[in-house]
Design brief:
- By secondary structure, the chain is of the alpha+beta class.
- It has a domain of 122 residues: Gyrase A, domain 2.
- 44% of the residues lie in helices and 15% in strands.
- Helix 1 packs across helix 2 and helix 6 runs antiparallel to helix 7.
- The longest helix is centred in the middle third of the chain and has 23 residues.
- The two termini are 15 Å apart.
- The relative contact order is 0.20.
- It binds flavin-adenine dinucleotide.
- The site of flavin-adenine dinucleotide has 10 residues, from helix 6.
Length: 195
């Protein structure tokens, strides 16, 4: 799994605080320290709507289609996912779940190789890629771009970072949180994702 932050609002916390201050006409009180305190206070009070003014865009590669299916259920985020209808997917790997023992993984890799060979055979016989892909498993890698505002990112991290979530999307939530904490520590100060 590879996750890269490809865009984030400029000075996201300054932006959130500047917008929030309009409500009390307190723009004159802005400073990095006061902004940090304000953002934490707003989160504690549940005034999450001001977090919508900042957003981030991630390039996510090497996750399974199983994880991507879950991620793209989040309706307030925007996505572009690589199309199996148009892209030749023979260079894409299979994601290994940590629960797979060596022997199970060896067999899964062989099965995947056979699926790729059949895919190639079918494409060679003139079957469109959008149909040949039906032989590929849900563990096959995919790549996508996701953009969301900070409120939605907090929601996604909270839901997908919970122990109830699938291991792969939880790992994704953990890494996104790490990245977001670097660019906006106060907007994400209260979230935790356990391994
Ligand atoms: C542990 C776990 C297990 C799951 N298991 C399943 C499963 O077995 N089957 C399954 O189908 N799904 C499953 N899901 C997916 C889940 O049901 C949601 O579809 C997904 O988590 C997106 O959540 P959301 O709707 O809160 O978020 P988003 O789509 O990101 O929306 C964010 C928030 O915006 C608001 N919102 C968005 N759209 C609307 C709307 N139309 N009307 C009103 N408010 C709206 C809501 O407050 C929502 O919480 C699972 C999710 C988790 C975390």
């Amino acid at each position: 799994m590879r996750i890269k932050l490809i865009e984030v609002s400029q000075d996201p916390e300054g932006l959130i605080a500047r917008c929030a201050r309009v409500s009390h006409r307190s723009e004159g009180k802005a400073s990095p320290e006061a902004d940090a305190k304000l953002i934490r206070r707003l989160i504690e009070l549940g005034h999450d709507s001001v977090l919508e003014f900042a957003s981030a865009t991630f390039l996510i590669e090497g996750i399974s289609r199983a994880a991507a299916n879950q991620l793209t259920r989040h309706r307030l985020a925007s996505f572009v996912q690589e199309s199996q209808r148009y892209v030749d997917v023979r260079d894409q790997g299979l994601v290994r779940p940590p629960s797979f023992p060596e022997e199970g993984w060896r067999k899964a890799s062989q099965l995947y190789q056979r699926a790729l060979e059949l895919y190639e055979e079918l494409v060679g016989e003139g079957v469109p890629k959008e149909d040949a892909r039906f032989v590929l498993p849900i563990g096959a890698e995919t790549r996508l771009v996701m953009r969301a505002n900070f409120r939605e990112l907090r929601h996604i991290i909270r839901l997908r970072g919970s122990r109830a979530a699938q291991w792969e999307i939880r790992e994704l939530a953990r890494r996104m949180l790490e990245i977001l904490r670097e660019v906006a520590p106060n907007a994400f100060f209260d979230l935790e994702v356990e391994r």
